[in-house]
């Protein structure tokens, strides 16, 4: 089987090198780009593989890169790398059609899993996906307060900000967060956001 191709776009050379090394040892074919414009200039049409791009870059950022890829008719699956606290950007990226996002610093396995599922899927999950329907059903079991916390988490709020908005302590927010994560069966915030976007709740 031909090795899967990953186009890595990041303005940080050390980051590009470490990702290239990891993916190379896992048998992926890797192409590196310092900027989104490099990728747009060098990408053949039709292109194969998937794109792994940082969301915050000088020049054109990850969101603009995604927009330009789509307007150029490139439908490659795209995985975004985001810094801590970039949840609203990640939500926007997924609405634009990104397959997934992964928060830095990430562990190797999480990155490999995100890329494998992006390559396998090749496109964002449809709203008819049984997993999405199941998530919507689980959200329906949340209490009103848990749902309020969910909405604000997906909008990128911190426990402090959510507590201020709902007039409860950050500690209480954490308790509601733990309950809603258990009820929705989301493994982490990234998964919760992904499901919420696919289900049209974000």
Count up the helices: 10
N-to-C terminal Cα separation, in Å? 38 Å
Please name the CATH architecture of the largest domain: 3-Layer(aba) Sandwich
CA radius of gyration is 18 Å
Number of E strands = 5
Main sheet attributes: strand count, strand direction, barrel closure:
5 strands, parallel
Q: Structural class of the helices, strands and pairings?
A: alpha/beta
Proportion of helical residues: 40-55%
Highest CATH level, the class of the largest domain: Alpha Beta
Strand portion? 5-15%
Backbone shape:
elongated
Find the CATH superfamily of the largest domain: Response regulator
As laid out across the biggest beta sheet, the strand order is 2-1-3-4-5
Integer average pLDDT: 89
CATH level-3 fold name of the largest domain: Rossmann fold
H-E string: EHEHEHEHEHHHHHH
Number of domains: 2
Note poorly predicted spans: none
InterPro entries: CheY-like_superfamily, Sig_transdc_resp-reg_C-effctor, Sig_transdc_resp-reg_receiver, Tscrpt_reg_LuxR_C, WH-like_DNA-bd_sf
Domain Response regulatory: 5-119
Domain HTH luxR-type: 135-200
Protein name: Transcriptional regulatory protein FixJ
């Amino acid at each position: 089987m031909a090795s899967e191709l990953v186009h890595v776009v990041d303005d940080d050379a050390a980051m590009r090198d470490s990702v290239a090394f990891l993916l190379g040892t896992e048998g992926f074919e890797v192409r590196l780009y310092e900027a989104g414009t490099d990728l747009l200039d060098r990408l053949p049409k039709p292109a194969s593989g998937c794109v792994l791009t940082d969301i915050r870059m000088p020049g054109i950022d990850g969101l603009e890169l995604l927009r330009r890829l789509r307007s150029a008719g490139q439908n490659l699956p795209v995985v975004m790398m985001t810094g801590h606290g970039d949840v609203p950007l990640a939500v926007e990226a997924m609405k634009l059609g990104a397959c997934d996002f992964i928060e830095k610093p990430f562990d190797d396995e999480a990155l490999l899993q995100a890329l494998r599922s992006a390559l396998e899927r090749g496109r964002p999950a449809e709203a008819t996906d049984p997993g999405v329907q199941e998530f919507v059903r689980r959200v329906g079991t949340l209490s009103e307060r848990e749902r309020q916390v969910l909405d604000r988490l997906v909008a990128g709020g911190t426990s402090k900000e959510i507590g201020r908005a709902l007039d409860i302590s950050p500690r209480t927010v954490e308790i509601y967060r733990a309950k809603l994560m258990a009820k929705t069966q989301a493994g982490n915030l990234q998964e919760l956001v992904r499901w919420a976007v696919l289900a049209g709740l974000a």
